[in-house]
Design a protein that fits this description.
Length: 95
């Protein structure tokens, strides 16, 4: 099972990429040590720090022509990883 689901590519994270900070959507059960070792193996970089955030599911309601559709958004966990100075993770090279 891969702990890293997908990289975060947003304007805010892309601005932090120049400073060696990268974002990932990770498994909800992953801890910081697992995230650190997985990033180091997958991308071949030295990880300095890992910060994690959990996002809860939000209730959403949509009014359509026929009925009211109600549900929840997905809950997820986000990891912000800082790599050592001078090291780079190239997300766009995999595309």
């Amino acid at each position: 099972m891969d702990i890293l689901k997908q990289p975060l590519i947003t304007e805010k994270i892309s601005a932090l990429n120049e400073k060696g900070v990268y974002g990932f959507i990770v498994e909800k059960t992953a801890d910081k040590e697992q995230i650190k070792s997985t990033v180091e193996k997958k991308y071949g970089v030295k990880v300095v720090s890992v910060r994690t955030m959990r996002y809860a599911a939000k209730h959403k309601t949509r009014y359509t022509k026929n009925k009211i559709v109600s549900g929840f958004t997905n809950a997820y966990k986000k990891a912000i990883v800082q790599v050592a100075d001078g090291e780079v993770i190239d997300f766009y090279g995999e595309i």
